[in-house]
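Budget justification note: compute hours in this period were largely spent on complex prediction jobs such as the one shown. Inputs:
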Amino acid sequence: MIQAINEAIRQEMERDERVIVLGEDVGKNGGVFRATDGLFEQFGDRRVFDTPLAESGIIGTSIGLAVNGFRPVAEIQFLGFAYQAMDQLAAQAARLRFRSAGRFTCPLVVRSPYGGGVRTPELHSDALEALFTHSPGLKVVMPSNAFDAKGLLISAIRDEDPVLFLEPMKLYRALRMEVPDEPYEIPLGTAHVVKEGEDVTIISWGATVPLVAKLAEEMKEKGIDAEVIDLRSLQPLDIDAIVQSVEKTGRVMVVHEAVKTNGFGAEIAALISERALFSLSAPIVRVTGYDTPYPVPSVEDEWLPNAARIVEGVQTLMRY
Amino acid sequence: MFDQDQLQFEMVQLLDENGNGDEKTLASFSDEFLVALYRWMRKARVIDERLLKMQRQGRIGTYAPFGGQEAAQIGSVFALESNDWIFPTYREIAACLAHGLPLAQIFRYLRGHLSGGRTPEHLNIFPIQIIIGAQTLHATGCAWATKLKGETQVSVCYFGDGATSQGDFHEALNFASVYQVPVIFFCQNNQYAISVPVHKQTASRTIAQKAVAYGMKGVLVDGNDALAVYKTVKEAADAARNGGGPVLIEAFTYRLGPHTTSDDPAKYRNAEEAEKWRQKKDPLHRLRVFLEKRGIWTEGEEEEWVAQVNGEVTAAYEEAAADGSGSIVDALSCVYGKPSKLLQEQKQEAARRKQGKEGK
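Corresponding output:
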């Protein structure tokens, strides 16, 4: 996935000279995960900037750059550090179009790694997507594989509005897959049906999708035919894909790493109750992080939505 | 304790409180320039007073008066080119007007019209900022873009003494200096952030001296001396345009009125203090005295001008008040370039309710 992300940025920089990259260690070092590797060498110090260490500064100056003709691709080194930039993200970038009644737009992409299971120090793993889906004006995109990452990132860079592009760091190098060499777009707001099924719908995004897909295959052998939907983007949301699947299966599970209360799973459950309540034959199940700050490595595997918790959730649903 | 005398900043002043100054320096300003500058300051004062009255009459919403800061705002804008960028806060109505924003647009903003935050396409004026200090970074980024494109505009960022405590202010000065971008940080130190006096805001003796830590030029200027402000900003802008990098300017001034129409300054400062600034240091007074001594302004011209501006205010208000554009449906249309399906549904709901209401 990391190569696909790198290629997407490189190809967009080649296509459009307004695309610039800025963030901490993104230049000579190529990013702490090497997402921007080689870009500084190829495009030089007028397109790729190692900024001072200040998250609010990175996002705030990116807004000014975006308004005055550039298309910045900014990196927040770990999503937990985005708290430092909350005003610039949620109160400034998000509202610029609205506040200026459409005169100014903010074509800005903020890339940030997130996600657990990799034994990081504190505040490196937190899944904070719900904070940003609660900020009208922002888009929130969360790829789960290399192919999607490239197509979604290219769409995000070409979008006229600010996009949070959240990259599951556990998947950066986890899975190898063929990715087309040429640039391509995956429209924001289109979900992907990873596996079709009849018995239960499992909705997920980002870091948890590969685990859910693997478990769905295993469950098939035990006679449970699960449909797996990878949302890919939470804002905009592909509500039609969700409703269609729920109407087919009548059983729903949402899996996400973020904490449970007011997580995006709650929004999905509410939307389903508004639109497809009478298709349900069981209460909606959420398998998520517990309502604590993201924990230390010694307990994170039990904290995360792991295989045991997901399988148990499906079994509960199948009892109805 | 650190001896701050090592960081001495003399206050730049061309015209003292009685309208006197170095004759040779003052001779360099043309009659035409001086009259135009004074007319704008007088106009701004009239507008400020009218807006306060109109707020009390319920014709506009909460208003943050700028009275006392006309020299800082008008003097600084006079030093700019028409295509330079400005980043105003809610107190920079005078600066916005002098940089070309139509008065009717200010009324739309203050009356809460949906289009109130939209500045005309040909003007490089950012929407009015509410979050203290947030615009310092936007101005820095904007100036950075100007530099990367090889263009010559400068970006001028307005803020008050309170903003210098915010993290964004420090991040902005740091970024601006690291990348040597053409931005002017223009601080109107009006000595109060709502109720908190500047000596409780910062232990620095001057705000200008904060520039030193960022490897940047800092200038302290008498913010009630329009000519000194003009000269200081002009020099900073010329330097920035020619690759000289950012400058921090502290314009030392005083807010004569309340923080906003919801504020009562009697709770935190004594009336004599404000009266002293009003009587002795009014920025309009010293320039008018100087103009009269030069024989280029009379009482008659003053009266005629004030009457004309009052007419403009009434006309602009009426234009804005008659503007019925901007519905809830329009509000739902300017969140994204392309609204999501869910937002589209909400828009349809709002449109249906609006139609139903109007049908009754």
